[in-house]
């Protein structure tokens, strides 16, 4: 990545690489969606990417997303916004109101809070369960061996329909086995979607069935401050 590259040029490059990896994996073109992760970037940095046609974005903080996206949505009503960061139950109302997809359902308390808010607001964001695929103490997510039961509990206990699973593999290990494990768990849980793969490893996630990849710095550049 050189400094003369723009976010739009990088977006086009990433789209081409997603398509190439999809074909290489023998999967149909268009079967992997790109979630452009815009956390820490400001509206004026996001607009060119919207103008270039990207509509699906990821943010990791409810507060930050609330400050940026309502105005952008006024200009681009067909934006699809994903929450990819940990959700606190006291932010469930805001999250349900703003996001189209919440990828970080990871515990009973959040499932209960989302169910309550979705009923109250009569709004149904699509939901993913986050799995702590490397069983790392510092990472959010349900443990791999509890994930199938948790998905079932979200359905049967809270009436939530879970569309897929999401994971962030450990940073310093080869990601393939973790992507493979998430794919296996999704099969056991009977969910179709897999959100996995980021700037450094999205091409590795696609052969393991990723249906969306979350790419931030490879599009927007190095983040100005820690996310
Ligand atoms: C920040 C973030 C990403 C994007 O990371 P990059 O390495 O910049 O592509 C993806 N997923 C989650 C959950 C994130 O927090």
From TrEMBL:
Name of the featured protein: Pyridoxal phosphate homeostasis protein
Its function, per the record, reads: Pyridoxal 5'-phosphate (PLP)-binding protein, which is involved in PLP homeostasis.
Could you tell me which Pfam families the record lists for this protein? Ala_racemase_N
- Decide whether keyword Ligase is in the record: no
Q: Where is the Alanine racemase N-terminal domain?
A: 29-224
Q: Which cofactor does it need?
A: pyridoxal 5'-phosphate
* Highest taxon of the lineage: Bacteria
Tell me where in this chain the PTM N6-(pyridoxal phosphate)lysine is found.
39
Q: Cross-referenced InterPro entries, in alphabetical order? A: Ala_racemase_N, PLP-binding_barrel, PyrdxlP_homeostasis
Q: Which Gene Ontology molecular-function terms are recorded?
A: pyridoxal phosphate binding
Record-stated family: Belongs to the pyridoxal phosphate-binding protein YggS/PROSC family.
Which keywords label this protein? Answer: Pyridoxal phosphate
The organism is: Aureimonas jatrophae
Question: By its UniProt entry, which CDD domains does this protein fall under?
Answer: PLPDE_III_YBL036c_like
């Amino acid at each position: 990545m050189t400094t003369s590259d723009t976010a739009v040029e990088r977006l086009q490059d990433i789209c081409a690489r997603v398509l190439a990896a999809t074909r290489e994996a023998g999967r149909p073109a268009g079967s992997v969606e790109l979630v452009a992760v815009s956390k820490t970037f400001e509206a004026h940095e996001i607009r060119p990417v919207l103008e270039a046609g990207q509509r699906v974005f990821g943010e990791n903080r409810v507060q930050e997303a609330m400050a940026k996206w309502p105005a952008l949505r006024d200009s681009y009503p067909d934006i699809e916004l994903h929450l990819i960061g940990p959700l606190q139950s006291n932010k469930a109302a805001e999250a349900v109101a703003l996001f189209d997809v919440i990828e970080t359902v990871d515990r009973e308390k959040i499932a209960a809070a989302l169910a309550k808010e979705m009923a109250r607001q009569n709004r149904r964001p699509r939901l993913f369960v986050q799995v702590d695929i490397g069983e790392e103490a510092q990472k959010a997510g349900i443990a791999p061996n509890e994930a199938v039961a948790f998905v079932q509990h979200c359905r049967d206990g809270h009436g939530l329909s879970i569309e897929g699973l999401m994971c962030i593999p450990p940073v310093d290990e080869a990601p393939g086995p973790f992507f493979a494990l998430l794919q296996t768990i999704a099969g056991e849980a009977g969910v179709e979607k897999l959100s996995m793969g980021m700037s450094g490893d999205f091409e590795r996630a696609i052969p393991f069935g990723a249906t969306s990849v979350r790419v931030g710095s490879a599009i927007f550049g190095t983040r100005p401050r820690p996310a």
